[in-house]
Amino acid sequence: MSAIVKNHRLYSIFRGIKDRLHQHQFVCWIAGGAVRDFLLDRQVADFDLVTDATTEVLKKIFPEALLVGESFGVLKIPISAGEYMDLTSFRQESDYEDGRRPSHVSSSTPTQDSVRRDFTINALFWDDEGDRIVDYQGGRGDIELKALRCVGDANTRFSEDYLRILRLLRFEAVLGFQVEEKTYHAALRAVSGISRISGERIWAELKKIEGIKPQNGNLDKAWRNVLSQELGQEIFKSILNPCSLNMERVLTAKHRLDLMVALYLLAEQEDLSGVLKSRLKLSRDELKEYQRTTHLLGDFSKKQLEEWAYEFEKDELLFQRAKQLAEQGWIDENLILSAEKMLKNHSEPLLLAKEMLDLIPAPKIGLEQKEIRVLQMKGELKDRAAALVYLKKKYAKI
């Protein structure tokens, strides 16, 4: 594995950090997911580093670093514009009182540090100086077996941080590994604790699951678990309706529906915006995205085809969602095909916004762009000249 690590774009930066620590007689190892992914020949995006130096010492060795979370002692060392490498001390954690974070963190040994990690495959270290993988929890063997197993007692691991249930589903989906039986049953027993996790952390994990590329049906399995009665009700708490007539259609869709569409179809209430904002803490842009989806599903039959064609031209994501829904029979597929054909036949708008500046008030430009584009697709405006005549006549008195 040594050659793969040393050929990575971040290796020279890691070596620089390691050398600075070595000057003070401290070790520096690569930890966790990067080691796992090197072994699996997967793309490694970043390195998380660990050392036996304390946080106080690290602040002196790396004065340029940002300290994130004083109690956890995570240093973010700037390596380029907007890019950082995380460095922490080997640590042990205890007294998880709220199922989210430890109340006590202290410096420890590499062995003790491995004990606090979630799954064995994430409890691996790379010792570059010794040119070896350090494995205290059997993670390398579990990678060979394609097994997902908690470090130590699975009940304890999930009660420490209930978000690990979603992380388990994500790793199952992305790696195609089999969840060990004890780990699986412990996750089921811990499901009710998800309601204690902040909405931001849940939403972030769900978006990671959604972003996974399908592999041998594992992604669909993960989504089925996320939307199931046992997990879904705790994750979305008062959002999903597990008895919905749409549940089976959503879970067995030929192509997986994206998260916003699934939320709308399985909702107990018509407008989830308030719940999504208060519980899952969606951003303003994400709430707008959800509202666009509800608009698509709720108003499709109320708009003319040419208006929808214009909407699809402006919003590719909305168009893709419309196609998903048409495949499942929630929207007439012929209408989607007609809108697509309409856009191909009228690939260029007759007028651009800058061409309207001298003809109409600026606040009206967006409205008239849509109006002219719709009339173009209806065949009522044939060319640029006709569009200009239309505008001049409409705003002749201004």
Automatic annotation (TrEMBL):
Its cofactor is Mg(2+). GO terms for molecular function: metal ion binding; nucleotidyltransferase activity; tRNA binding. It comes from the Bacteria. Residues 28-149 form the Poly A polymerase head domain. GO terms for biological process: tRNA processing. The keyword Nucleotide-binding does not apply. Keywords: Magnesium, Metal-binding, Nucleotidyltransferase, RNA-binding, Transferase, tRNA processing. It holds the Pfam family PolyA_pol. Belongs to the tRNA nucleotidyltransferase/poly(A) polymerase family. This is Poly A polymerase.
